[in-house]
Amino acid sequence: MMEYRRLRDPRALTAVAHPVRMGILELLTIEGPLTATQLADRLGETPANCSWHLRKLAEHDFIEEADGGTGRQRPWRMSRIGLSWGDEDDAGPEERRAGEALARAMLERWVDRYLDASSRLAESDPPWRAAGELTQTMGWLTLEELREVNEQVAGIIRSYEDRLADPDKRPEGSRLVEMVAWGAAIAVSR
Fold this sequence. Notes:
Blueprint: E1 5-7, H1 10-16, H2 19-31, H3 36-43, H4 47-59, E2 63-65, E3 76-78, E4 83-85, H5 93-124, H6 126-131, H7 143-158, H8 162-165
Parallel strand pairs: 1-4
Antiparallel strand pairs: 2-3
Helix pairs in contact: 1-5, 3-4
């Protein structure tokens, strides 16, 4: 499994919590090195806007220049795949706020993408739509049980990460699939 880059700097957390930057990071992770022009085409943005966001991401070491090209035809790649943040006991208020804002932005992106894909696949590819699933349940767990469940689910999800970086590991007929899960205590009245 990959070791994720741990974000603690509120400025870096804020820098990545922008929709265009999240899109850039996703595309560079999935497709490999791309230029500002290629990113602009895929994201429906201008090359100038993508160039600006690429520079911001590079300032915080999320991405780096890849070999070949100059100017807007210069390709960029991920410095490292995978990010994590939060859960630090010594986190200050700025770090916590920036981490919560990033978590909210990512959750909204994931939910929107799930609803979008579910709708499109229902019409265009029913077998793939049927294979996807939204599951929810509640149960009374101890702190240790919650940690154990989250570790098990994360382990299952993360066991396919190597296919992001290595296309040769992708089985024939595979598609890019997003798996999102969380297990968290909720506030309830007792």
